[in-house]
């Protein structure tokens, strides 16, 4: 296996934080799931009975990223830069490793066609079959980071 980054860098964390937003108290996400912090899905065994501090929200984000990083490392079979890893982590954090696993983006990446892979970020800007402005901006930012 070629050398590759193993954890999300500052640029990736900043990108995820920017697009996930920070909510210190429990809320229901767009599909009605209990969520807190930077998009942390509250699991049945977890209870958040008080608002988080910003440092607690960041610690929770870093914990969530660890499992996503492991999933990403298992999928990528070519050497990638830290910026590419970070862009892919934003994608995986938002959509899940399963979506990346079955994507043309990953097929292009693992075939060594990075520029084609970068363009595939832009395909993933829809919810309910309709493009969303926020997702379009996020995918453009991920593509830009991936190419940097």
Automatic annotation (TrEMBL):
CDD domains: lyz_endolysin_autolysin
Segment forming the signal sequence: none
UniProt GO molecular function: lysozyme activity
Enzyme class per UniProt: hydrolase
Keyword check for Cell division: no
GO biological processes: cell wall macromolecule catabolic process; defense response to bacterium; killing of cells of another organism; peptidoglycan catabolic process
EC numbers on record: 3.2.1.17
Catalytic activity: Hydrolysis of (1->4)-beta-linkages between N-acetylmuramic acid and N-acetyl-D-glucosamine residues in a peptidoglycan and between N-acetyl-D-glucosamine residues in chitodextrins
Keywords of this entry: Antimicrobial, Bacteriolytic enzyme, Glycosidase, Host cytoplasm, Hydrolase
Family membership: Belongs to the glycosyl hydrolase 24 family.
HAMAP family recorded: ENDOLYSIN_T4 (MF_04110)
UniProt-recorded name of the protein: Lysozyme
Organism this protein belongs to: Paraburkholderia sediminicola
């Amino acid at each position: 296996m070629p050398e590759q980054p193993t954890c999300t860098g500052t640029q990736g964390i900043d990108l995820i934080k920017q697009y996930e937003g920070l909510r210190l108290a429990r809320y229901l996400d767009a599909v009605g799931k209990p969520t807190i912090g930077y998009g942390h899905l509250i699991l049945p065994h977890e209870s958040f009975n008080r608002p988080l501090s910003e440092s607690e929200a960041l610690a929770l984000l870093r914990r969530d990223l660890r499992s996503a990083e492991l999933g990403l490392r298992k999928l990528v079979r070519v050497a990638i830069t830290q910026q590419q890893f970070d862009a892919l982590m934003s994608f995986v954090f938002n959509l899940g490793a399963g979506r990346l696993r079955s994507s043309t983006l990953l097929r292009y990446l693992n075939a060594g066609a990075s520029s084609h892979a970068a363009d595939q970020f832009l395909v993933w800007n829809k919810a309910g079959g309709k493009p969303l402005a926020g997702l379009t901006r996020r995918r453009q930012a991920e593509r830009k980071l991936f190419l940097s």
